[in-house]
């Protein structure tokens, strides 16, 4: 009796820990860093300083001058063809979940803003870090985010969270499995 209820608790704790772990590993990326979703932001440099993994989320924050459209393919992205978007978002604050590996294209839906550079290409890799699909990533993936950049704040928080969740896992394992 005692042993079996103990086992159930071990299972419950294991499930809880893995949920916490997964939550901590899913990062939120504020698109454009501290400047947000705006014409003045350099989105190429922002996106190349981030690593997007399956389960992560994009957060678009912007003024009422802007909106978010998801474009269907690379050619629509290149030519700023915002006429037939996959998705249109508005309201100043939107979250987009990156639910599978691959490349997605976003631009501002306001006329002329995409041409002014308000567009971003997001390449999501599998959660274990391996690039599952698309071999088309000539981006600077080897560049480690420098600590002087404000855009790296999110990734530092992310690292801290991962670290904390690892510690939690270890502590809980010690308490329950010894
Ligand atoms: C890209 O999307 C546009 C807009 O939906 C469409 O007209 C075009 O045919 C697509 N191009 C390719 C290569 O799929």
From TrEMBL:
The chain crosses the membrane at residues 160-177. PROSITE patterns: PHYTOCYANIN. One of its GO terms (cellular component) is plasma membrane. Residues 1-26 form the signal peptide. Residues 130-150 are annotated as: Disordered. Keywords: Glycoprotein, Membrane, Metal-binding, Signal, Transmembrane, Transmembrane helix. Pfam families: Cu_bind_like (PF02298). Residues 27-126 form the Phytocyanin domain. One of its GO terms (molecular function) is electron transfer activity. It comes from the Eukaryota. SUPFAM superfamilies: Cupredoxins (SSF49503). This is Phytocyanin domain-containing protein. It comes from Buddleja alternifolia.
């Amino acid at each position: 009796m005692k042993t079996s209820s103990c086992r159930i608790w071990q299972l419950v704790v294991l499930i809880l820990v893995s949920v916490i772990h997964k939550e901590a590993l899913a990062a939120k990326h504020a698109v454009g860093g501290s400047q947000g979703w705006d014409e003045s932001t350099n989105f190429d440099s922002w996106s190349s300083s981030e690593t997007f993994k399956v389960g992560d989320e994009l957060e678009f924050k912007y003024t009422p001058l802007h909106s978010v459209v998801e474009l269907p393919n690379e050619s629509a992205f290149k030519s700023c063809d915002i006429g037939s978007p996959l998705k249109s978002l508005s309201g100043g604050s939107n979250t987009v979940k990156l639910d599978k590996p691959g490349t997605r294209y976003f631009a501002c839906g306001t006329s002329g803003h995409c041409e002014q550079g308000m567009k971003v290409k997001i390449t999501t890799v599998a959660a274990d870090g391996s690039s599952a699909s698309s071999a088309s990533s000539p981006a600077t993936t080897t560049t480690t985010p420098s600590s002087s950049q404000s855009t790296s704040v999110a990734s530092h928080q992310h690292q801290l969270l991962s670290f904390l969740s690892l510690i939690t896992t270890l502590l809980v394992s010690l308490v329950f499995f010894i």
